Amino acid sequence: MPDPTTAVDRFLDAVRTATIGECDAWAEDVVLDATVPNWRFHRRGVASIKDTYRSWFADEGRFDELHRQVVPDGEVVQYVLAWTEDGVPHTAHHVHLLSVRDDRIQSDLVMCGGRWPAGLMAEMEAADA
User: Fold this and answer.
1) How many CB atoms lie within 10 A of CB 21?
2) For position 1, what pLDDT does the model report?
3) N or C of the chain: less Cβ packing under 10 Å?
4) CA–CA distance, 10 with 19 (Å, rounded to integer)
């Protein structure tokens, strides 16, 4: 994989490699607006966002799907992330609207479909058949 060069590249690399703590993609005054199953919350500042994302992206994974679209003030990123947690395969589906200025993420509006263990993934696949 090429060396990450933009703030969004660095963020996605940290998600994939479970290295959020070392990531320098965010502006000091960054704002996170997160919608997760049955909840919405906000975080402000790098430390708070790293705390949240360290728990979300605690295990190294891979992108089964990754779509990026540049918009005037940043990027829209949609992915399906797959990882193994305590021996159980999981996936998650996220969409991030990332505002970027001076090569730092200023805001991250994220929609999260949830964390799906292997059993639930099999149910979803069977329902699609």
Assistant:
1) 10
2) 41
3) C
4) 10
Q: Which of 116, 96, 114, 115 is nearest to 106 (CA)?
A: 96
Q: Are 74 and 99 in contact (CB under 8 A)?
A: yes
Mean pLDDT to the nearest integer, 48-66: 97
Q: Is the pTM of this model over 0.85?
A: yes
Total Cβ atoms within 10 A of residue 76? 14
Residue type, 89: P
Q: What share of the chain is helix, strand, coil (3-state, %, to 5)?
A: 30, 55, 20
Structure tokens at 49: 């966002």
Structure tokens given for 87 = 């021996």
Which is it for strands 104-117 and 74-85: parallel, antiparallel or unpaired? unpaired
The owner of tokens 């906000």 is: 42
Q: Which residue, 37, 27, 21, 60, is CA-closest to 110?
A: 37
pLDDT at 4: 58
Q: Which of residues 54 and 126 earns the better pLDDT score?
A: 54
